[in-house]
Amino acid sequence: MLSPRIVLLIGREGDALKEIRRSLSPAYQVVVFEKLEKEVAWFKPMAVVIHHNGGPRQDVINRLARLRQFQPAVPALICSSCYEPGQWDTLPRGVKGWLSWPEGQAQLQATLNRWRSPGAGLLRRLQSVWSHLALPVKTRGGSAAASELATTTDSGPGKAGLEARFFGCWSLKAGGHCLPWMSSEMNRAMLAYMIFHHDERILRRKVIDGFWPDSSEDSARNCLNVAISSIRRYLKDNMAEAPAIHFRENAYSAALGPALYTDVHEFLRLWGHAQAMERANRPDEALNAYRRAGQLYKGEFLECITREISWVESMRSKLREVYLAVLDRLGELLV
Fold first, then answer.
1. Positive/negative CA dihedral, 17, 79, 327, 316
2. Is the pLDDT reported for residue 141 higher than 50?
3. Contact status, residue 168 vs residue 298, Cβ threshold 8 Å
4. Which of 57, 236, 243, 264 could disulfide-link to 166, CB 3.0 to 4.6 Å?
5. What does the pLDDT look like over 77-96, one tens digit per residue?
6. pLDDT at 90
7. What b/e readout covers 303-330, taking b as 16+ CB neighbours within 10 angstroms?
């Protein structure tokens, strides 16, 4: 059974959201999303808590519709800091209840406790993981399934392509050779951003929100143009066949080729594969995939970036939560 104690908390940053998270954290793994993007699908939560801090009812309904693109079946609860009489007399589809905050704090805890499935404590499970994480996993009955998985489904780095390491200290290799260190933290983070989102059309507005959310539009665009220009020059100076970063119709795209390998994408692939193996009742393959995912997490996401960059901090937090969930499942399967 997949971990039943993850709760997604959705809402705009503020004191009330922090208080809700603080109240839930002792009993649950709480993952906060201000915007509903594809990362929501990384998790298998037992519940979603949507914080409504004023504004029209339709805003919550729109968030629910967006949520269902990534989490179609998880039960949702509305936590309202600005309740208006009659506003939630009729609940939107998929919402199991609503409560007023902070008056409903005890009700929130009680509701989630009813929804929660019993399971072993996280600490006890994690303690059993550390001694196994670096060891090969032997399958019951001498099955070779796990070792097959290690050799046939791992899209590991190849010398011919580009290899990016996000966990711990950032590093970039091309053709098996390390590229020189970029001195500017902002440029380093921007290059990491373009590589991380290499398979997407990256809206300029989204980049600005992730790096300069508090700057004026003109200032943010100027900073972005300087960073992109520096990255293009860096790639051209250090790679025989430099990948192109294109801009058209207010969006960027990075042509990095099919041979790109990143430890983060492999980590997430293994996380998804392990969950699929659990659902298929194949615990040995699941255990092996969880173990390999845990080994990829060499440190926090872009640990070398110390500046406060919204995108880096957001991804760092979400990937840390995935890693904790990986350890939780390892502990559950090893106990």
1. negative
2. no
3. yes
4. 264
5. 999 888 777 777 788 888 98
6. 85
7. eebeeebebbebbbebbebbbbbbbbbb
Residue 118 is classified by DSSP as P
Name the pairing type of β-strands 251-255 and 244-248. antiparallel
Report the pLDDT value the prediction gives residue 126, as an integer from 0 to 100. Answer: 52
Domain housing 269: 121-335
Last residue of a domain, one of 95, 119, 143: 119
b (16+ CB within 10 A) / e for 213-228 = eeeeeeebeebbeebb
Measured distance CA(21)–CA(48) in Å, rounded: 12
Which amino acid is residue 56, in one-letter code? P
Q: Please give the structure tokens belonging to residue 55.
A: 């504004």
Count of domains in the chain?
A: 2
**131 and 89 within one domain:** no
Among residues 102, 119, 136, the one where a domain terminates is 119
Which residues fall within 8 angstroms of residue 309, CB to CB, at 6 or more apart?
186, 189, 210, 211
Res 133 pLDDT > 90: no
Q: Is the pLDDT of residue 59 over 60?
A: yes
pLDDT higher than 50, residue 221: yes
Report the candidate in 53, 62, 31, 35 with the shortest Cα–Cα distance to residue 44.
31
Residues 149-173 have a mean pLDDT of: 70
